[in-house]
Specification:
The chain is an alpha/beta fold. It contains 20 helices and 21 strands. It has an eight-stranded parallel beta sheet with strand order 2-1-5-10-9-6-7-8, sandwiched between helices. A five-stranded antiparallel beta sheet has the order 17-16-15-19-20.
Amino acid sequence: MQQIQEEFAKLKIDTSITGFIHCQEFDKHFSNNEHHENPQRTQSIDQTIQDYLQSKNIKKQVEQLSQFKQCDINHLKLVYDQKYIDFVEGLFKDVGDKKITKDFVHLGDTYLCKTSAITARKCVQAVLEGVDKILTQEWKNAFCSVRPPGHHSGHKSQPNGFCIFNNVAIAAKYARQKYNVNKIVIFDWDVHHCDGTEAIFYEDPNTLVISIHRYDNKTFYPGSGDPNKIGGKNAEFKNINVGWNVNWKTDDAPGYDDYVYAFDRLLGPIIKQFGPDFIIISAGYDSAMGDPLGCIKNTREGYQYMTEQLSQICPKVLAVLEGGYNLDVTADCALATFQQLMGVPQEFPVNIQPLKCGLSAVTTTVDKQKEFWTCLSSKELIEYQRKYFGQAADLISGGHLSAFEIKDNLIIKTTKKAEFKFYSTLTDLSNPYYEENQRLIKFLPKLISFDDKTCSITMENLTYGLENGSILDLKIGYKTYHPNCSAEKRKKEMKKAAQCDQNQMGLRVGGIKIRDQNGELTINKHGSEAYHLIRNEKLMNDYIEQVFRSNLAEQPNREALQGCIKFIQELVEVLQTIKRMFRSTSILIIVDNISKKYQIKWIDFNYVMKLSDDDENPKEQMDNNIIGGLKYLISMLKQIEQK
């Protein structure tokens, strides 16, 4: 039987039918209190689409399904264990002599009524029938106006986030089981991160899960969606998060331009390289302008653009409703998506101008993903990016502890010409060190933009979100002077080195800030005050440990220690392949044990030159000056870790 189904699925049936899936029985999931997730959501969508079909007299292009049984329990088991299923279906069942009298259950933000479990299973079945129609090529694509939504479900022991069963996750597993579909993309544009979907497929190398969502540095529900989460064992780079971090005091919310930029610079190229056989859209419209929960400004054209682009990559597209809580806006955006699935012509704005928060979010994810997705480093995409950054590089170094113009999550730093040149040519394809730069970029803080008139750069503020943390600025290298500097300058730097055992350790402290359990400064030293305070190996070890025990933690932050060790080890490995030397650069470490975050970056690039420019060691094959200091730092961190 399975072989027959597979052969049938391979038949080239010419169809122009778009499916529309809806059902009045979805209304039987309802709350006794006012709630954003209510039957009016799908009622509004269904009426809007029906009115459109009637007015255009194009019902022949559309086939509708509106009656569904409950899905087979084995289909639920593709994602859920029996315990979870029993929990959902047993909430209103009598147990022995104990009679259930309640009509509603509220589990945090999620309600269930007596008919919710049945309705949720009918919702799953509706989506699965959409899968059947598309993969047997009866339909070219489909839109599912279904509820309750599902993308938050799948990793917790009970329903959450308004969700009961994860419709799209079950659909993907069903498609693979029944039709032997190999590569599947789940594209989630809901304003909330798809934490359930991510968890279900985190170690699945054949399912590419993409989420573009509001993040706000983990403070926006559900707090997940970190761009660093790239996939689990054997599935690295198959999980892609684009998280908007919006400063609501100074920034506008991302909208059409930002979604288009994210798709064209990042998501579209990755999906093309992945080569999907089937695409499922988690179509949440709480990312639309006017939604009371999302407060983001995507538009109907934004959803149409993404739908069109996805359909061009793989015509087999199933769009499944997730969130969306402004009834009129949600209905209009759902109609826009449906129109695009039908192939209704649509003109899109030619010129876009993404916001800084949009550019920053996309750049962050590009940096995390480009190691695997080679398409992201193509000449065309780099040039496309430059249109919006000006003469921008992907990343740029962060700053010292000295004064900058700080604007929340950004820093504006005025640089010297040599440092500015290093930054401005990081992604210049004509730069003879272009390939080296691509290996170095991930160690540097992120560039937002820069201004050659003022010789200033705008970059990420590495302390943003870690304001209560302790900070350590380590100048790396036995020598921190330029080979061609004056004799007076060389003498001055050598004197500094002698005063703090830099000649033995290969590093010295450029600045240090230690904060207590309330985030108050207890130590704040810079420049000569810092290296006079920390003048030998024992003191260096002690103060580094204090940084990792920031906020008077009983033990050093092990996660931060291990992360910093890994970072520096990887930097050493890369530097061993580099044909340049770096003088007077620094490692910046920030540990905030109140927010349980840490940060480490390589910063400051005033003196970057060819290895052969070192008149003291012109035949060196690698920059042992800085590598020696980094290795020493690794050994110190390992000693602290092993205590």
